[in-house]
Amino acid sequence: MRPTLPPLNALRAFEAAGRLGSFKEAAAELHVTPGAVSQHVRLLEAWLGASLFERHNRRVQLTPAAKAYLEEIGPLFEQLSQATARYGMPRTLSRTLSVNAPATFTLRWLVPRLAKFRAAHADVDVNVETSNEPLESLKDDYDVIIRGGPDTFYGYSMRPFLSEERLPVCSPALLQRVPLRSPGDLREHTLLHTSSLPRLWPDWLASAQIPELRPAAALTFDHFYLTLQAAIDGIGVAMGPTALVADDLAAGRLVAPFALVRLPSRSYCTYVAQEKSGDERVALFRAWLEREGMGS
After folding, report:
1. Which of 203, 129, 141, 201 has its CA nearest to residue 169?
2. Beta strand 267-273 with 144-149: parallel, antiparallel or unpaired?
3. DSSP readout, 40-57?
4. Residue 2 resides in a domain
5. Cα 178 from Cα 174, distance rounded (Å)
6. 34-46 pLDDT, tens digit each
7. Structurally, how many domains does the chain consist of?
8. Domain boundary among 29, 63, 87
9. All residues at 6 or more sequence positions from 162 whose CB lies less than 8 Å from its CB, including other chains
10. Residues 198-212: pLDDT tens digits?
């Protein structure tokens, strides 16, 4: 019988981390996150029943046994790479990556950044579908699902990549017509609501210590992106998620008159079925989302 091999993705992560002496540098080489490298190493340690690294501040050091192990398996990766180059088909990742994400997030955050992913990974085609259904209600099979979190779903791995808060936003032109010097001035304005998020304004007004405020008018939309567009068009004041209005604030299309009073909000997370967690395209896309999220 053929001898049992350890998990190959875990072995690959161990080889890179051991050779480079850093989970972070190994993650960059493998196009995954340091957390993924650490998880693979823990999996290999559990499989072997032995510790492989001594953890220090920003570096890791091989144990003596792990060093000897690496000296034996390291050349095997090089041989495998050379054999694949000689006999393998040209490398391609052409199969389409299917992504499901909320509509407003897709329109306002993901789509403006997708060109950067395509520029870095031209061999990965991405198909994005929008939906606000809970993950467990989705009928189709997706490679990557983006939803709020962190939540736990059986059979899925979860990784957060973008955090946000919520605060009032409006167009500069609106402030020129009707100034907002203090939260109490909102009584002179139209407050913009989204039907699926009815508590945003009441909760923010309570945080601003004016829970009884009555605005001049109110408008309610069935989609969040319509609410934000109405704010950009100067119709009223909306509760804006910081991650999804950051580009508008930077460009001056929106302003945040009361930036010090913010509501906490859930993070955006990727959810991937466990059997797809080792897919290279999935790993590339997740790592890219996490780098973009850190820069937002």
Report:
1. 201
2. antiparallel
3. HHHHHHHHHTS--EEE-S
4. no
5. 6
6. 888 888 888 888 8
7. 3
8. 87
9. 109, 243, 267, 268, 289, 292, 293, 296
10. 999 999 999 999 999
Expressed as residue numbers, the domain containing 147 is: 97-163+269-295
153: CB partners within 8 A, 6+ apart: 135, 136, 271
State the pLDDT confidence band at 92, using cuts at 50, 70 and 90.
low
Closest CA to 43 of 67, 76, 8, 92: 8
Q: Is residue 246 part of a domain?
A: yes
DSSP letter for each residue of 123-153: T--EEEEE--S-GGG--S--SEEEEEES---
C-alpha 44/C-alpha 52 separation (Å) is 9
- In this structure, the number of other CB atoms found within 10 A of the CB of residue 41 comes to 24
DSSP state of 255: B
The predicted model gives 67-90 an average pLDDT of 78
- Average pLDDT of span 149-177: 93
Handedness of CA 65, 67, 71, 73 (dihedral sign): positive
Exposed (0-12), middle (13-18) or buried (19+): which is 263, by Cβ within 10 Å?
middle
